[in-house]
UniProtKB/TrEMBL annotation:
[2Fe-2S] cluster binds at residues 287, 292, 295, 313. Pfam families: DHODB_Fe-S_bind, NAD_binding_1. It comes from the Bacteria. One of its GO terms (biological process) is pyrimidine nucleotide biosynthetic process. This is Dihydroorotate dehydrogenase electron transfer subunit. Belongs to the PyrK family. The keyword DNA damage does not apply. PANTHER family: DIHYDROOROTATE DEHYDROGENASE B (NAD(+)), ELECTRON TRANSFER SUBUNIT (PTHR43513), DIHYDROOROTATE DEHYDROGENASE B (NAD(+)), ELECTRON TRANSFER SUBUNIT-RELATED (PTHR43513:SF3). GO terms for molecular function: 2 iron, 2 sulfur cluster binding; flavin adenine dinucleotide binding; metal ion binding; oxidoreductase activity. Residues 10-110 form the FAD-binding FR-type domain. Its cofactor is [2Fe-2S] cluster; FAD. Binds 1 [2Fe-2S] cluster per subunit. Binds 1 FAD per subunit.
Length: 328
């Protein structure tokens, strides 16, 4: 089960910052004043934002992943100008108001099936390795995840969620794989290291980091995580979280499927197990609440070749990779 808040807000909120990020191509950081979302959202959730509450062109709000909590009364959204709605949003000034609905959807589940459980030998699993895989603007829903996990007691409003306790989070390791087409699409590439034990970059044109696909770079190192898992089987668990463009996510899922068949055909440590790999999907949708059915994707039913349609906005945007064999 993925995590969501039981309450959402809908209203007009003041913009405190709308700043183009230096050395990027049309990418902005929008800071919005609101006293509910910063304290209650879960990484992976999103908000519907409309540039001007009084305008009907465009009619619909746009969905944006909640980038991070800036303070108790402000949250931020990372967005790239790619159409009329985001172009209008980029012209918003400090003190203007935007229409906001959120937090919406299901966020990442940070309590894996293995957390606090015992393995076959009876030893308690006490440490996690969290591997985050981001493509371009796909860093947005992942950005606040390390801080969220590191916080042992996530104090949230009792009317939305019970306190979330993550044992041993101080000992967890965090590894980031971040790829894009060019260096300019690796956002916060010089400041992001502080949240991670290891950071790997890749660009298609070789302008920053490894030249090539970030998924290929991950799989150059994947055996290291498996070996660590085998050597520390009594204590260690590896979790993967990913967000990026559809071709990247499809390639990632296919690579894991092939890897499992070749390396762990009879293992109970299959890396596509529930919660082992969580994927936040990027899809176009209009309403954000599951009514219009404009964002449905094929989801595997009971780990078989049968599938059902689910709504990315309502049932996602975070899914288990094991559900996405038909995602392409």
């Amino acid at each position: 089960m993925f995590m969501k808040t039981k309450k959402i807000i809908n209203g007009n909120c003041e913009v405190t910052v709308n700043l183009k990020i230096k050395d990027t191509e049309n990418t902005y950081l929008l800071r919005i004043k609101n006293n509910f979302i910063p304290q209650n959202f879960i990484p992976g959730q999103f908000a519907m934002v409309k540039h001007n509450p009084g305008y009907s062109d465009p009619l619909l709000a746009r969905p944006f992943s909640i980038f991070r909590r800036f303070n108790e009364n402000e949250f931020e959204i990372l967005y790239r100008v790619c159409g009329k709605g985001t172009d209008l949003l980029s012209n918003i000034k400090k003190g203007d108001y935007v229409s906001v609905t959120g937090p919406l959807g299901n966020g990442f589940n940070t309590l894996s099936d293995f957390q606090g459980l015992q393995n076959d030998s009876g030893a308690k699993i006490v440490k996690n390795i969290h591997v985050l895989i981001a493509g371009g603007i796909g860093i947005a829903p992942l950005f606040s995840l390390p801080d969220f996990i590191k916080n042992k007691e996530r104090k949230v409003n009792e009317s939305t969620l019970n306190p979330l306790v993550i044992d041993g989070a101080d000992d967890d390791e965090f590894i980031l794989y971040y790829g894009s087409k060019t260096e300019k699409e690796l956002y916060f590439r010089y400041s992001i290291h502080s949240d991670y034990d290891e950071v790997y970059f890749a660009t298609d044109d070789g302008s920053f980091g490894y030249k090539g696909n970030i998924v290929d770079l991950l799989f150059r190192n994947i055996n290291d995580y498996r070996k660590q898992n085998e050597k520390s089987a009594e204590q260690l668990n590896v979790n993967f979280y990913a967000c990026g463009p559809k071709p990247m996510l499809s390639y990632l899922i296919n690579k894991f499927e092939v890897y499992n068949k070749l390396n762990m055909p009879n293992s109970n440590k299959d890396m596509l197990n529930k919660y082992a790999i969580q994927v936040s999907l990027e899809e176009h949708f209009a309403c954000g609440i599951g009514v219009c059915l404009g964002c449905v994707v094929k989801i595997n039913s009971d780990n078989s070749d049968n599938f059902v349609f689910k709504r990315v906005c309502k049932d996602g945007p975070v899914f288990n990779a094991s559900e996405l064999h038909n995602y392409c």
